[in-house]
Specification:
The chain is an alpha+beta fold. It has 2 domains: 73 residues, Glutaredoxin (3-Layer(aba) Sandwich); 104 residues, Glutathione S-transferase Yfyf (Class Pi), Chain A, domain 2 (Up-down Bundle). The chain contains 9 helices and 4 strands. A hairpin with a 5-residue loop joins strand 3 and strand 4. The chain is globular.
């Protein structure tokens, strides 16, 4: 399998944490890739019409995207405990948590694009504040979710989202507002899969 990736992408990190947790990391060839909302990358575009990372190309040439799809696919390739619960309340709890954390990341990335890529005279402060509002509401909801130590895709995505805040938004003091969430994150960050996938600029 071949993975188009960026070391700074939290969505790539989610996939790589899953790869480590499932013992599949050595089966994935990583291809460093640069993509952006206004930049065309022909190599990625040939595999993913959305031209985004992560994009996973299977041995038969099939391409999978986005991180949710890739992570669930990887979870079918091993014989250990499933990170995506198969059915019942546990499945919907894990998927709900994943959706909240992915939404947090979506808002964070839109803020980054607005403040770092859009020309300054065209930046819209109300837009940015609206995204920060979503980000903080998502944080408050994650804090109420009762995240556990037995990993599912929900906990993995939440950990990657909080790590991205520390990486790109160090002034967002989310631990002060949500100390229990900070304690949970400190524990999950010690897992080898999270240590091995720390984001890089």
């Amino acid at each position: 399998m071949k993975l188009f990736y960026s070391g700074a992408s939290p969505y790539v990190r989610k996939v790589m944490v899953v790869a480590h947790e499932t013992g599949l990391v050595d089966r994935i060839e990583r291809v460093p890739t640069s993509v952006g909302p206004t930049a065309l990358n022909p190599e990625v575009a040939a595999e993913n019409p959305l031209v985004k990372v992560p994009t996973l190309v299977l041995a038969d040439g099939t391409s999978l995207f986005d991180s949710r799809v890739i992570a669930e696919y990887l979870d079918t390739l091993h014989h250990g405990r499933r990170l995506f619960p198969a059915e019942g309340p546990a499945r919907w709890t894990a998927l709900r948590c994943q959706a909240i954390a992915d939404g947090l990341l979506d808002a964070a990335l839109l803020i980054r694009y607005e403040n770092n890529l859009r020309p300054e005279p065209q930046r819209w402060s109300d837009w940015t504040q609206g995204q920060f509002r979503k980000l903080r509401q998502a944080l408050a909801t994650l804090a109420e979710e009762g995240l556990g130590t037995e990993l599912t895709i929900g906990e993995i995505t939440a950990g990657c989202a909080l790590g991205y805040l520390d990486f790109r938004f160090p002034d967002e003091d989310w631990r002060q507002a949500h100390p229990a969430l900070g304690t949970w994150f400190a524990k999950i960050s010690e897992r080898p899969s999270f240590v091995a996938t720390l984001p890089k600029a």
